[in-house]
Predict the 3D structure of the following.
Amino acid sequence: MSTIVESVRSVAARDVLENARARAAFGIAAFVAAMSFSAQIAVPLPWSPVPMTLQPLVVLLAGAFLGSRGGAAAMLAYLALGAGGAPVFSLGGAGLPWLVGPTGGYLLAMPAVAWVVGVTVRPGAGTLVTVLGFLSGLAVLYAGGVAYLVLLLGRDAGSVFALGVAPFLAGDLTKVILAVGLTRRFGRTDS
């Protein structure tokens, strides 16, 4: 029985692996699903309107694994899915109002994050370039989140930094280290 299953799996996967468009569509769908699940692993912080999630890791990996266009497309598809009412945002949030709430700036920055990472973290890039690419993506994510929180909360950038960046730095730097390891081991090989 396992021989039959392996044969079917091999034949089915061969068409996807050999067709570049199918491979890209599968990658985008996989990262939309990964982002949706990573948003559900959320820890609300009592002093911040933004929960801690695994989403920064997934958006960095989307750019690294799918490239700039594929990563940005995956994040746009994720946002469209959530805006359309699917409960894919943190803690099961959904709909357009979620995009104008406290996490809206981070969410709307995700396509740009994936694009920046995809442009920077190229196949064959050294570890330093990879780390700098991920840190650049994280900076874009923080910039989008902080800029929007400044507008939403009407506070100065310093106090918003304390709410929307400082509590996440250690965890997000750990996610960068994990992303570097995963990318070095499993990253894309196309140019």
User: Anything to note?
Assistant: The two ends are 39 Å apart (CA to CA). Residues 2-186 form a domain with the Arp2/3 complex 21 kDa subunit ARPC3 fold (CATH 1.10.1760.20). The chain is about 75% helix and 0% strand. The longest helix spans residues 55-83.
